[in-house]
Amino acid sequence: MSDPVRALVVYESLFGNTERIAGAICAGLRSSLQVELVRVDRAPVVLPAELELLVVGGPTHAFGMSRHAGRVLSASAQGPVVMPLHTGIRDWLDQLRHRQGLAATFDTRLAKSRWMPGSAAKSAARVLDRRGYKFLADPAGFLVEDALGPLVPGELIRAREWGEQLALSLHSQTRPNTADTSPGDTDHRHTA
């Protein structure tokens, strides 16, 4: 019998950029966790009871999570897509059965619009927050040069490091604190 999944990474990816970021985040989480990576159209709407961390990510589209019409009309017209367009993270979160736990969210966005308002990660975090989830990190954004890619150099490394930090934060949340912290100690958690 295999170990129970302790972390689940659910992602939406239109052109493969978010999929690559999700894979790098998983690699970082796997440094100390059992992790499953699942495309959003294959993700369960009832999460396993033993799940300790839910990580959700998708592309920022029209200042938030993508909508079905936007995926069909806009994304499919730009180039070949890597997954079916019928389900995005917005749709999946709407179907997700109520459950509380620990979560983190991420997105991909155009480098040239990095300072514009709106974020799929922040939108997903608001939905999960309303469902009672607590967050291990601020929503993270990873940059692509153009809608079709490629990723900005260094983003895969940053995504892996973010995953490693999530794993460390999860361990500190779920493990009893048996050591006293001295006044000089510093919390080295990284939030993106």
TrEMBL record:
Residues 169-192 are annotated as: Disordered. Residues 170-184 have a biased composition (Polar residues). It comes from the Bacteria. Pfam families: Flavodoxin_1 (PF00258). Residues 7-167 form the Flavodoxin-like domain. This is Flavodoxin family protein.
